[in-house]
Amino acid sequence: MPDPKLMEAAVHEYVAAFDANSPERVAALFAPDANVEDPIGSPAHVGHDAILGFYTASMQTGAKLKLEGPVRIAGPYAAFAFSVQLHMGGKDMHVDVIDTFHFDDAGKVTEMRAYFGPTNFHGFT
User: Fold this and answer.
1) Would you name the residues annotated as active-site residues?
2) Picking from 43-47, 71-75, 118-122, which range would have the lowest pLDDT averaged per residue?
3) Half-sphere exposure of 55 (CA within 13 A, CB side)
4) Is the pTM of this model over 0.90?
5) Of 3, 5, 18, whose CA–CA distance to 99 is shortest?
6) Percentage of the chain surpassing pLDDT 90?
7) Which residues pair with 98 in a beta bridge?
8) What is the pLDDT of residue 89?
9) What Rg, from alpha-carbon coordinates, does the chain have?
10) How far apart are CA 17 and CA 20, in angstroms?
11) Which of the four pLDDT bands, split at 50, 70 and 90, describes residue 125?
């Protein structure tokens, strides 16, 4: 069972890596065979190279993350609500998101799922 303190620290590192525009730091949180489903229901990005590519493209938007409440830990899972802040087309926008991480015993993320839909986009036209 992964250490809950390390799991919460991984979530905070995830947010900090976005602030630093460092997809490499995000990818380092994941196990080599991990998968990222963002948003849920879309094709998964599987493996370190695909995950790095996904986060590299995501950060090119200038996205910044802001935690909206505490990280919730249950067994090997962490769930956290946050908003994605964007400035595109001269407008400030945000998306309300909940992510879940599943951790292996070594404390690496093996699965990430992002939950959001059309009603969670604000300021977009």
Assistant:
1) 14, 38
2) 118-122
3) 27
4) yes
5) 18
6) 88
7) 81, 115
8) 75
9) 14
10) 5
11) low
The pairing of strands 64-67 and 77-88 is antiparallel
Separation of alpha carbons 79 and 50, rounded Å? 22
- Six-digit token string for 86: 């964007």
Query: Can you tell me the distance from the alpha carbon of 106 to that of 108, in angstroms, rounded to the nearest whole number?
Result: 6
Per-residue CA distances from 32 to 35, 61, 94, 106 (Å) = 9, 25, 31, 12
Contacts of range 22-26, beta carbons closer than 8 Å, 24 or more positions apart = 22/59, 23/52, 23/55, 23/56, 23/58, 23/59, 24/52, 26/51, 26/55
Q: In whole angstroms, what is the distance from residue 13 CA to residue 43 CA?
A: 25
Q: Judge whether 71 and 8 are in contact, CB under 8 Å.
A: yes
Q: For residue 115, how far is the Cα from the chain centroid?
A: 10
Residue type for position 107: G
**pLDDT tens by residue, 55-80:** 999 998 889 999 999 999 999 999 99
